[in-house]
Hints:
The complex is a heterotrimer of chains A (390), B (573) and C (417).
Chain A: H1 9-21, H2 32-36, H3 40-64, H4 70-78, H5 80-112, H6 119-136, H7 138-162, H8 180-189, H9 199-203, H10 212-237, H11 240-245, H12 249-256, E1 258-259, E2 263-264, H13 267-296, H14 303-317, H15 323-337, H16 339-363, H17 371-389
Antiparallel strand pairs in A: 1-2
Helix pairs in contact in A: 1-7, 1-10, 1-13, 3-8, 3-10, 3-17, 4-5, 4-16, 5-6, 5-13, 5-14, 5-15, 5-16, 6-7, 6-13, 6-14, 7-10, 7-13, 10-12, 13-14, 16-17
Chain B: H1 3-12, H2 16-24, H3 28-33, H4 36-57, H5 66-76, E1 85-92, E2 98-105, H6 111-123, H7 140-148, E3 154-157, H8 160-168, E4 172-176, E5 182-185, H9 215-225, E6 231-238, E7 244-251, H10 257-268, H11 278-285, E8 297-299, H12 302-311, E9 314-318, E10 324-327, H13 331-334, H14 339-342, H15 345-374, H16 382-392, H17 399-419, H18 425-442, H19 448-463, H20 467-505, E11 507-508, E12 511-512, H21 557-561
Antiparallel strand pairs in B: 1-2, 2-4, 3-5, 4-5, 6-7, 7-9, 8-10, 9-10, 11-12
Helix pairs in contact in B: 9-12, 15-19, 15-20, 17-18, 17-19
Chain C: H1 5-29, E1 41-51, E2 57-64, H2 66-70, E3 77-84, H3 87-94, E4 101-103, E5 109-113, H4 114-119, H5 122-130, E6 139-143, H6 147-153, H7 162-170, H8 184-192, E7 198-205, E8 236-245, E9 248-253, H9 255-264, E10 271-276, E11 284-301, E12 307-322, H10 334-359, H11 366-371, H12 377-383, H13 385-388, E13 393-404
Parallel strand pairs in C: 1-4, 1-5, 5-6, 6-7, 12-13
Antiparallel strand pairs in C: 1-2, 2-3, 7-8, 8-9, 10-11, 11-12
Helix pairs in contact in C: 9-10
Amino acid sequence: MSESPKIGLREAVGLLTIFLVAKAFIPYLAFIFDWGLSGTWLIVLAHLPLGVVGVLVLVWLLNRHPGKTIVEIGEELVGPIPNIFLALMLLIFLIGLVALELRQFGEFLLTAFLPNTPLSVVLLAFMAAMLAVAYMGIDTLARVAWLFFLPFLFGVFVLLALTANLWESHGLYPLLGPGPWGLVKGVGSTLGVGSDIILLAIIAPFLASGVMRTVGLATVLISGLTVFSIILVTSMVYPFPVAHELVLPIFEVSRAINLGRFLVRLETIFLPLWMFAGLISMTAGLYGAAAVTARILKMPYYRPFLFPISVIVIAVSFLFPNIISAVQISFNLLITWSVVPVGLVVGTLLAAEIWRSRKNQQKGGPKSGDGPRSGAARGGLRTKPSGKGT
Amino acid sequence: MSLFSKLSRRVLFREPQEYQSLFESGSQEDQQQAPAGDRRQFKRKKAETERLADLINQDVPLPTDLQEIKQTLGKLFRSPENNDVVIRQFIIGMEPPLQALMVFYDGLADKSTQNMAILQPLMFFPSLRPDPGKKLVDSLMDRVAESLLPGNEVVTVRNYQELADNVMNGLTVVVVDGQDRALAVETRAWEHRGISTPQVEAVIRGPQEAFTEQIRANITLVRKYLRRTSLVSKFVKVGEMSQAQCAIMYLDDIANPQLVEEVLRRLQSLKADFIHESGILEQMVQDTDTPLSPQALSTERPDRVAANLIEGRVAILVDGNPWVLIVPTTFFSLMQAAEDAYIRWPGGTFARVVRYVGLAVAMLLPAFYVAAVTYHQDFIPTDLLLAMTGAREAVPFPTILEILMMELAFELIREAGIRIPGTVGTTLGIVGALILGQAAVAANIVSPILIVVVAVTALGSFAIPNYELSVSVRMLRFVYLLLAVFLGLFGIVAGLFVHAALLVQMRSFGVPFLAPLTPMTASSPDYLWRGPVWQQERRPDYLDPLRSRRQPRISRGWTRHKRKGGGGDGGGK
Amino acid sequence: MAVGSRHNRARKTVLLVLVGLMVLATLPLGGCWDYREPDEVSWIMAVGVDRGRENDLRISFQIAVPLAAGGGGESTAFVTAMDVPSLPAALEVMNSFVSREGDLSHTKAIIFSRELAEEDISGTIMLLNRFRQFRPTTALLISQEKAEEVLRQAEPVLEIQPGKYWELITSGWRYTEFIPVGTFRLADQEIRTAGAAGLVPLIGLEQEEPGPPHPDLRPKGQDVAGQLPRRGGVAVELFGSAVIREGRMVGTLNGDETGIVKLVRNVNYRTFKNLPDPNEQGRIIIIQARSRQAPRIEVDRRGNGPSQIRADVFLEADIVGKEGFTAWSHPERIPQLERLLAQSYNEDARVTVRRAQELGADVFTFGWEAKKQFLTWREWEEYRWADQFPNADIEISFDVRIRRVGLTSEDIPLRRF
């Protein structure tokens, strides 16, 4: 009963990857075409090394404090009061993420499949399933994620492959889209695309020791490549100016599948992909928010917070007057600016950690000679753009 | 005790123990309702039964006086009223002659064995084997047991409980005057069914014998397959009012000792009225009470039990029942059939894949049909859609009602098919095929494609090898139907999500129900994909067996040593 | 394992109750808004869009009669037309005289009349892009006659229901050179992105009066839809293509020109070529050709001036038949035949290029190749491909290899006794 949940390596990768990839299934990632024009796929590609660096920094930080979530690490490093601000920032980020994703998955369903159903019904149905599973615990969720992970990846790539006869290579040109500077700006303004990886810092205590780095790297690579493939194929099926217009790029890609008289109109077959991606990622977000709340309040249980948070999430997701403003806000908040709270939390803690280990080094014996210095070098890379963002 | 506390104790915080004893002694309301004249008799009777129950339950030693024992036994076995029990008094032909008593149930004990192994030697030949070495009085019972009773199993009995147990198990108990011990002689010979072919788990290839109702025979059947000294069959008595003889079987050098301990712990802790069937036992020992799936594998095939034991599982046998429980059980073992392993692996894998398709179809096809037809019409090929629409033109019911009617009709056929007497069984097929198939379509009650859907669903549910799982799936089908009606495919997917989470959370004797898929543990290719026999190198890791390796990496020695054979034809190549 | 079993059970109960409540809570809400029986919907198989008499547009729907597909009933479809401001409006207006809700999700073809297309169809195309029921795999067609009339005449002979007819006839591009690929997705992309012009199948009705007699040998693809010398079958014919530039139809390509464009665009199909026998007057050699590998297109951009475009198309061909007695299948003659064929194709290509440049429409999608030469989107836009294309120096050359000669290697000359 009271034994703490355990999450295996594969389960963690499945959960985190779906958590990161889900954004490709709802409208807001499509706004990235604003930045990259025909070179959007390069932006996504450029995120990969950045994500690898970022996750290495995060893993380094987490590994210094085994068995603790980022909230507790923060408390240890910067003290309880400043940490509350950091943790609240994370909490707001997670709640915002779930609320915005929920709204968009709901709107997606309404736009694509259930045009006459009220939004509230769809959102409540989503929330019911999410709450039930979030209540069962993060280990259950992670296992469910792993259960659906391979079919999910398989489905995504089958969906992309089925459009092979529609690929037009010219969709990837002009190569640099808005020009080199424009691309760099695009990369800079979409840095938050992988900030969801912060979930790793929340489920860290449940992971076996030593697998954190593998989990982080595998997650970043698999999800990065998946999102990259999605953007690439979208660009090739709907070359740039058209891709730019689409509200639901990958949905349109699935609608475009045309392999003779029988293999058309397949989007319904792929509906489970959207739903599983949405349900798993939002449940993870919901759990994350509840877990952070519990840690802030130093409670051993997250369950009491699930329901209140779900109410907040539903309320927030109803705040937006229409889909396009929700999408716009999502993009700005989750893709452009989310790097600020996440980067700030990780950056602050990193700085504190380095500062503390320096102090320790000066005071006493050399605790770890190489770690902090290389960490500082990596940390500089990651924290700089976020600093600029603010 | 104030009224309130009494109330709260009785109503709100009723403790199970108290509740149980209350139940056993008859509730007070019953007593108060009885008429005054009967009440005294009732009380007397009750006191007497309690005294007799204490006799059995409280380790009362046997008295030395034979007449006292006879009297008590008569009461205990309700002798004058109960004609089953035989309490026969005879004299052992010793010097001096001794009064003795023989107790047994007529029908449970074998008469000729009694005559040959008890009465003859005791009455006629006790003097044939004098035993001068020992004093007569001290070792009378030893002498009787060692040299006078030629029965193959003679047990010493020291109290009423043991005595009653042995008598109820078909043994004959011999009580000798002046002794504080009695002897139980093996004379069991009750009627039972012979070993026959499996009725439910039939296979085309593989052994064709099934368990019977006799626990001894069943154990023998398993032991026949597993010739290992480490095969343990441990007897456990389960139940309160009528104790069932249960046995757990495991391989001592493979099964995880903690698992064995846990199974024993659960069985021994049971305090139930009447557990005479493994299905009832299963409900008493399963981890969670969920309608989603059974958590123990019941099988009637000794070969299957043997195969599972050798993987490190534990089998629970219940006397009087041909169904043996195997624990822990995961989802994948429920979907396996014995034959998968007996035919070559591509065929086995194919059969298994077909079975999983059957499972998916049985659970989801009607729901998917409803979702596609009423929500996602754009998914249906145009020709089919128009044909379906055309065929529905004259059907007055909405699709969901149509499918519910047909599914219920199918369930009716199925249920009726089980309950119907064999002599009229053939009519059922005619009724089902005719009325529900053609006539329903002809009468415009359902559309023809729906018949196909229901039929394929039925086939899918029959392909599920485990009966209980198939019952669960058939019920879940209706849940998914409802979800599909309310939200289309989205409803189904949301249901699947929660369903998957519930399954993931389930455990069977502590083993996650979906192992080794999640959590991923090392295992041989024997789950979704059944690999070749020579690749089955490990026992399931989630069972944590004492020996994890089944066979070496090269299990087919000839592939390596074929050259040594000196051109023998063994290599084949 | 089950130490706290009572606690555990309580937790499970709470969980079940929670799940149950959640599910139950959605049930009364789930009033099945989107639940609809397929027989409460009228499935529109094809849409026609004309210039309206009393309103902006005249939309006509070809609606399938499902009873026919289901086995009973006489007619397979009926056509209804109405003057409305827009297509969705038609769906709504339709319900006042068609008993079932109209649905476009199974629509196989949308037909614009030429009259309308020559004005402007970009508005409707953008609308369709946004409209959920409409699918990108639907065929987009332009009809010489009124679209409504085309729909009325489109009574399939081979198929039970018109949807299949439209699907099959518009996928004719797989086995004939005269019909371009006509999916809405492709057309939409061509029409609305720089660097290409839309090529849309042209549809017409069987001509009533036969044209002027023309007894000489004449290439089979010199017509466009509505002019074919033929009789019988469904009155609707697809032949040639309409060229659309900036949302407007600017002209047509005949069947042969369409074939050349398709070859350059790397749409693989088989085609028969009737080559006049150079040795024998009035006799022809019949060749079946198809592309052998993807065409190689090189765009040489000289600064901001007109480009030089060179396209090499690779074909492989079989001799299907010949009327003359020249031994063309002799290995020594085959290279000559290949040259002749290439010349013939090159000539066709020159005509087609001239036609395209006259229309100012890059139907070959050379622009998409040119795009790869630019580094940034701004440069590409500033180059203004559409303006540059008419002045581009375009050379399309064919390279033909004859591989097989059919079932006979050589014909014995007819003996004159």
